[in-house]
Automatic annotation (TrEMBL), chain A:
It holds the Pfam family XdhC_CoxI. InterPro entries: MoCofactor_Util/Proc (IPR052698), XdhC_CoxI (IPR003777). It comes from the Bacteria. Residues 14-79 form the XdhC- CoxI domain. This is Xanthine dehydrogenase accessory factor. It comes from Geomicrobium halophilum.
TrEMBL record, chain B:
InterPro entries: MoCofactor_Util/Proc, XdhC_Rossmann_dom. It comes from Geomicrobium halophilum. Pfam families: XdhC_C (PF13478). This is Xanthine dehydrogenase accessory factor. Residues 76-225 form the XdhC Rossmann domain. Transmembrane segments: none annotated. It comes from the Bacteria.
Length: 109, 255
């Protein structure tokens, strides 16, 4: 995805005062589906723009993003894909990603 | 640069922009000292064009900062606006290229045909390639309606690139055509341009995936461009799996 398109989208959400969250992969270790710098927008209805890799890891991030949208408070989430190679809840990649999740609207506590 | 961890929670999520000359703009009133600290950590990464998270001690605790660089996008120039160019232009944009389509015919080089291209230019090929900016972020595809236009364009590019150092030249110039025809053309070009290494010239274009239709050819071409851009071997990934099988996959204990 194109950086400019992404930021244009974020700016238009901001202008419209529309709530959403931005999740950014800020650190990776081992084999992960996406690299540092990958971003996605999570909307309050769980719709996505972009992907940070799909699967259960992304599901966890979406859950946290909903919280961020509600509270406006940024937070980090670590997606651990190293467990359960053959289990249903395990990632198929075998690495760890740190994801920073922030609201599209500025945070005032 | 985004602060992603800080003992002062009000600073988490605050952002600043850093330019390569060291000037900084932030959305928050950071102290002068803190700003300086950010510049000192961010600038080397910016100059190396490296995106990463860093931590540094600040006052009594640690600050974590995510630093992302925004390189200018690579430019994909598609010469010839025929059947193959349409999917090439689309996929090029999907992959983040700044895509320019050029053709010397108004009926082909127009906004109706390429509504979303970054640039559509109607101009003679030779005039265009005489002036076009050449950088290592330039990727050129010669897909014109006639082999002679491709060859004329390529000659002009080779002539200009001969004047440049190898690292200043384009990364990729692909020219479509049959193997036989191209073999003949290259024999001639190599004797004509003896100061060019031809390492960035890819002709015939594309990876060998049996592509036939315009969409298939576009995928074969763009796959080759990605392979070159990422300096990857472009083989099936399963060919590497044997090395990993030896390493085994170890389960970690569940928490």
């Amino acid at each position: 995805m194109n950086h400019l398109d992404f930021y244009e989208k974020v700016m238009s959400l901001r202008k419209q005062g529309q709530k959403a969250a931005i999740a950014t992969v800020i650190r990776t270790k081992g084999s992960t589906p996406r690299k540092t710098g990958t971003k996605m927008i999570v909307y309050p209805d769980c719709k996505l723009h972009g992907t940070i890799g799909g699967g259960c890891g992304e599901g966890e991030v979406i859950e946290k993003a909903l919280l961020v949208i509600e509270t406006g408070k940024p937070q980090q989430h670590q997606v651990d894909l190293t467990e359960g190679l053959l289990y249903e809840d395990g990632g198929i990649c075998g690495g760890i990603m740190d994801v920073f999740i922030e609201s599209t609207l500025p945070y005032h506590s | 640069m985004t602060i992603t961890s800080h003992t002062n929670i009000h600073l988490i999520g605050t952002k600043s922009l850093l330019w390569s000359d060291g000037s900084i703009f932030s959305d928050n009133a950071y102290s002068k000292l803190f700003s300086n600290e950010l510049v000192a950590h961010g600038l080397p990464l910016l100059l190396k064009q490296q995106t990463k998270s860093i931590t540094f001690p600040w006052e009594t605790a640690k600050v974590e900062c995510y630093i992302e660089v925004f390189p200018a996008p690579s430019r994909l120039i598609v010469a010839g606006a025929g059947h193959v160019s349409e999917p090439v232009e689309k996929i090029g944009r999907m992959l983040g290229f700044y895509v320019t389509v050029i053709d010397d015919r108004k009926a082909f080089a127009n906004r109706e045909k390429f509504p979303e291209a970054d640039e559509v230019i109607c101009m003679s090929y030779l005039d265009f390639f005489r002036e076009v900016r050449i950088t290592p972020k330039t990727y050129i595809l010669l897909l014109t309606r006639g082999h002679k236009f491709d060859v004329i364009s390529l000659q002009e590019l080779l002539k200009r690139e001969e004047q440049l150092k190898a690292q200043e030249r384009t990364t990729y110039i692909g020219m479509i055509g049959s193997r036989r025809r191209i073999a003949g053309v290259f024999e001639q070009l190599k004797s004509e341009f003896t100061h060019h290494h031809f390492k960035n010239i890819y002709s015939p274009v594309g990876l060998d995936i049996g592509a036939q239709s315009p969409a298939e050819i576009a995928i074969s071409i763009m796959a080759e461009i990605l392979k070159v851009q990422n300096s990857s071997p472009g083989r099936s990934k399963r060919e590497k799996i044997q090395d990993y099988e030896k390493l085994k996959f170890y389960e970690r204990d569940r928490k």
